[in-house]
Design a protein that fits this description.
The chain has 955 residues and is an alpha/beta fold. The strands form five sheets. The protein has an eight-stranded mixed sheet. Strands 14-11-15-16-18-17-22 form a seven-stranded mixed sheet, sandwiched between helices. The chain has a five-stranded mixed sheet with strand order 19-21-20-23-24, with helices on both faces. Strand 12 and strand 13 (650-651) form a beta hairpin. Helix 6 runs parallel beside helix 7, helix 13 (335-349) packs across helix 24 and helix 23 runs parallel beside helix 28. It is globular and about 105 Å long. It starts with a helix and ends in a 9-residue tail after the last helix.
Length: 955
């Protein structure tokens, strides 16, 4: 220690304490730029460590961090009465600093020297900062003893040779750890202690090693069995990645010992069948029946066998635990946010605030993990208020190839496929899949880290794909060198058996017996998971029975006593003592109180919040709302979150309706559609007694989540028999805001409608949205509800409802003519939906058009044919029936409605001509960006709907 350091330390100053490394780093950067910008004492101090490597600033930073740790450990441990001796003892030793730099380099860069690739196809270049010379050390220093206070090796000093041997065993063998990007010093030190305390020796007892062998035998045995029995049939086998099975088994059993009660797994197709049989306990006989074509869907389309989900219970050291494998389409990474939503719902149900009772496990492929943006979105959600699940354990099955792409310069721009995880400071454990004990150790470490810190962690399982992309593929056409190596490579199990035989743990004959017994179990069609619970506890399940097997019904009683509604209004207007709201917000609260107590007509926001209040309190149904800006609402209509202007605190009145109410939660989301909507889908498929809502900032932006709509929301029930009550609020309406702020793409949802798979509505009154939301909760049917919600109608003078309409009404699929039009005089019937109705109504009233009736189709799917026919039959003198929409002719509802309307109208005994549309001209974009052109189009649209010219419109 030099004199400056000694004076600083002895005087109690903390500049050199470990936690002040950033301060020292900033000083040193100043010094490098301008030495005179720091005090002379610091100049002298820094000059001692200048070298040709000054550009490598992280190493300099680590010098000080390591020095600070050693000083902290040694503080007060050395005393001397000899001033000269003390000065010598505390003088900074460049060799000691070099050793400290070398230790730091192993921790930071040892993964680049680790033996990770089972194929050995990519020799790792020399890592310069892991050489002695880089740190001004030489072979002559190898036997010199140095302090090791910064190491977790159980002793205070060791030779440089021993230090290097330990560092290479810990950081450079079959596990390469990246954790120095983690910003928390506590987490980094925990990781160092975990890794270094066993001196790099992974030592399992005989029982554990035999358990690993048993898992490997099952993993390899199933693939061999299927290959023989169903040669060339696509199954996306696990060959080359068999260590995945002992890894997952270890995680499940260890998590169970910590008290985890549910583990939810999401993964793509590779290895999925193996996981189903060898981990979740699916009966092999059932799988064979699927291969043989004996299993056909009882309802709907069904799906391929390597997309299907499954659930079971297994016994762990901590008791019975529930396992669930999420259903997944071929869009590889999209299952991750779906799974996280399901996990969050389970945690809420269990009041699992720290995430210890429910564990998410997401299994990725290397190419998809690096390439698909939803991975980044899901990581970004991981520590947010609305979406955290207490940390996710990620496993990347790293085949080192994606379909036929293996050249790194084609596959990604980063060194590892896992580098995206560094954005959330998640530790990454790269591990060689051909060393199953290292894989199991990494699994233990990963789970323990997640249990300790509640954050994400990644296991990057370096392996290979023995059979190509699928069993019918010939991979040597595109990866000839890789598959020349693979062809000669012994299997992971063979390598491990050789290791156990050499260690005297097992004999060749005993190892063969494991294979024989597993194969015989498959022949008999027996369960092969020893921990499987054949009579699972019902306490670990959610009973969906009350919500299954019902025919979809439009009419449902959603009435609530009017005095209750008034009480809810008064309760929502109550603020905590001393709470001061912003002036305009206070006005909203006061106006809403008048509306919700029957003094004034209700607008959209007043009716919507009454729906939520009645659901959580009157019906004990949980409500969750997320999306961009949902607390206030994009158009300032909701205000479910209120802020105190004096201290910024937030109050949610709907969460304080009564002590017995169900949970109400509203969260502003990060700026994502795809991952957030997928999360809410997963949530809604897990909790039946809830209204789960996602609202788009503008409905146009929902196309960023199209894969979620196509692969889950629209088709999840027909493919997987998974019912879902998710509600989507999509602001929609043509108001001159341009191509990207006008249309929620109604036509795309209607194109997906079939088999009563969802509901699509275009409500036009506050009472309608109130009853639609309540129907979604109280009716024991769970179907997605797609709402083309309004923008300008939120405050339109005509778009109001009386409190009595909320108390006594129900959702109406068709709203009839509201004015006293003489039916015998009506010759033109205008059918429409959404905002355009009010434009038509105002013009008709202004012009006094007695021959025109306007009927609103509030539910487009399922189409309420009987109600529509009833409205048509009211008008016996009809000459024209028109459908009027704001959207271009090739968009909106027309192309969906046309065949249905012709079928309904043509046979009708009236003089009406064939149904015809009135719409904007067909267009490649939804709307114009010109305000002038928008007005011209809107005028032509309204005139066309009413059957007049633009010149006849009221000014």
């Amino acid at each position: 220690m030099n004199s400056i350091t000694k004076q600083v330390t002895d005087s109690g100053h903390t500049e050199l304490a470990a936690d002040n490394a950033l301060y020292i780093e900033s000083l040193y950067e100043q010094f490098l730029t301008d030495p005179t910008s720091v005090d002379k004492d610091w100049q002298d101090y820094f000059k001692q460590y200048q070298s040709p490597n000054d550009a490598h600033h992280n190493a300099i930073k680590d010098q000080f961090l390591l020095l600070a740790r050693n000083q902290t450990a040694n503080k007060g441990s050395v005393a001397s009465t000899d001033g000269a001796a003390a000065s010598t003892a505390h003088r900074a030793d460049p060799k000691q600093m070099g050793v400290q730099q070398l230790i730091s380099a192993y921790r930071r860069r040892g993964h680049r020297y680790a033996q990770l690739d089972p194929l050995g196809l990519h020799p790792r270049p020399e890592v310069e900062d892991l050489t002695l010379a880089y740190h001004n050390l030489a072979e002559s220093d190898l036997d010199t003893i140095y302090p090791t206070n910064d190491l977790n090796i159980g002793k205070s000093e060791a030779s440089l040779r021993e230090i290097i041997e330990i560092m290479e065993r810990v950081y450079c063998r079959y596990i390469g750890v990246e954790y120095m990007h983690v910003t928390s010093s506590t987490e980094k030190r925990w990781m160092e202690k975990y890794l270094e305390s066993n001196l790099g020796h992974i030592e399992f007892d005989k029982e554990k090693r035999l358990a690993i062998l048993e898992s490997l035998t099952a993993a390899e045995g199933l693939e061999k069995y299927l290959a023989r029995k169903y040669t060339g049939v696509k199954r996306f086998g696990l060959e080359g990645g068999e260590s995945f099975i002992p890894a997952v088994n270890e995680i499940i059993q260890r998590a169970g010992s910590y008290g985890t009660k549910e583990m939810v797994i999401g993964m793509a197709h590779r290895g999925r069948l193996n996981l189903l049989v060898n981990v979740l306990g699916k009966n092999p006989a059932d799988l064979f029946d699927e291969f043989d074509g004996k299993v056909q869907p009882e309802k709907g389309s069904g799906d391929v066998k390597y997309h299907n989900g499954y659930s079971s219970n297994v016994m762990t050291p901590g008791g019975e635990a529930h396992l669930a494998l999420a259903f997944n389409p071929s869009h590889l990474e999209i299952v991750a946010p779906v799974l996280e939503g399901s996990v969050r719902a389970r945690q809420v149900r269990r009041n699992d605030t720290d995430g210890n009772l429910v564990l998410p496990i997401v299994v990725h492929g290397d190419a998809a993990f690096a390439g698909q943006g939803v991975v980044q979105e899901t990581f970004q959600m991981s520590q947010t208020r609305a979406y955290t699940t207490g940390g996710t354990l990620h496993i990347v099955i790293n085949n080192q190839v994606g379909f036929t792409t293996s050249r790194q310069e084609d596959a990604r721009s980063t060194e590892y496929c896992t580098d995206v995880a560094k954005m959330v400071h998640a530790p990454i454990l790269h591990v060689n899949g051909d060393d199953p004990e290292s894989v199991v150790f990494a699994s233990q470490l990963a789970l323990d880290y997640r249990h300790e810190f509640g954050k994400d962690i990644i296991i990057d399982l370096f392996c290979y794909r023995r059979n190509g992309h699928n069993e019918a593929d010939e991979p040597s056409a595109t990866q000839p060198l890789m598959y020349a190596v693979i062809k000669k490579l012994a299997t992971t199990r063979t390598i491990y058996v050789q290791k156990l035989v050499a260690a005297g743990v097992i004999s060749d004959a005993e190892a063969t017996k494991y294979e024989d017994e597993y194969r015989e179990s498959l022949d008999r069609g027996e369960y092969v998971v020893n921990a499987l619970v054949l009579e699972p506890s019902e306490e670990l399940f959610v009973d969906w029975t009350p919500y299954l097997g019902h025919e979809l019904q439009d009419d449902w009683d959603t009435s609530v006593d009017i005095e209750k509604l008034k009480a809810y209004g008064r309760k929502m207007a109550e603020m905590p003592e001393g709470y001061t709201l912003q002036r305009q917000v206070q006005k909203v609260v006061e106006q809403r109180l008048a509306m919700q107590t029957g003094t004034e007509p209700l607008n959209w926001g007043a009716a919507e919040t009454l729906a939520y209040a009645s659901l959580v309190d009157n019906d004990d149904i949980m409500v969750r709302i997320t999306g961009e800006d949902v607390g206030r609402g994009t158009f300032s209509h909701r205000h479910s979150e209120l802020y105190n202007i004096t201290d910024g605190s937030m109050y949610v009145p709907l969460a304080h309706m009564s002590e017995k109410q169900a949970r109400f939660a509203t969260y502003n989301s990060l700026l994502s559609e795809e991952a957030v909507l997928a999360f809410e889908y997963g949530y809604a498929t897990t909790v039946p007694n809830a209204v789960v809502i996602w609202e788009a900032q503008f409905g146009d932006f929902v196309n960023g989540a199209q894969v979620v709509i196509d692969q889950f929301i629209a088709s999840g029930e027909t493919k997987w028999q998974r019912v879902c009550g998710l509600t989507m609020l999509l602001p929609h309406g043509f108001e001159g805001q341009g191509p990207e702020h006008s249309s929620a793409r109604l036509e795309r949802f209607l194109q997906l409608c079939a088999e009563d798979n969802m509901q699509v509505i275009t409500p036009t009154t506050p009472a309608q949205i109130y009853h639609a939301l309540r129907r979604q909760g109280v009716r024991p049917i769970r179907k997605p509800l797609i709402v083309m919600s309004p923008k300008s109608l939120l405050r339109h003078k005509l778009a109001t409802s009386e409190l009595e309409e909320l108390a006594n009404g129900k959702f109406e699929t068709v709203l009839p003519e509201i004015d006293n039009q003489d039916a015998s005089k009506v010759t033109r019937l205008v059918l429409c939906g959404g905002k355009v109705y009010y434009d038509l109504l105002e013009q008709r009233r202004a012009l006094g058009l007695e021959h025109v009736a306007i009927v609103r189709i509030e539910q487009l799917y399922p189409l309420p044919e009987a109600r529509m026919v009833a409205e048509i039959e009211k008008y016996s003198n009809l000459e024209e029936v028109v459908w009027t929409q704001e959207e271009p002719l090739n968009q909106g509802a027309w192309n969906y409605l046309a065949p249905n309307m012709f079928r309904i109208v043509v046979p009708h005994p009236t003089k009406a001509e064939l149904m015809r549309p009135v719409a904007r001209p067909a267009s490649a974009a939804p709307a114009t960006g010109s305000a002038k052109l928008h007005i011209q189009q809107q005028q032509a649209l309204i005139a066309g709907g009413l059957g007049i010219t633009v010149d006849q419109l009221a000014k």
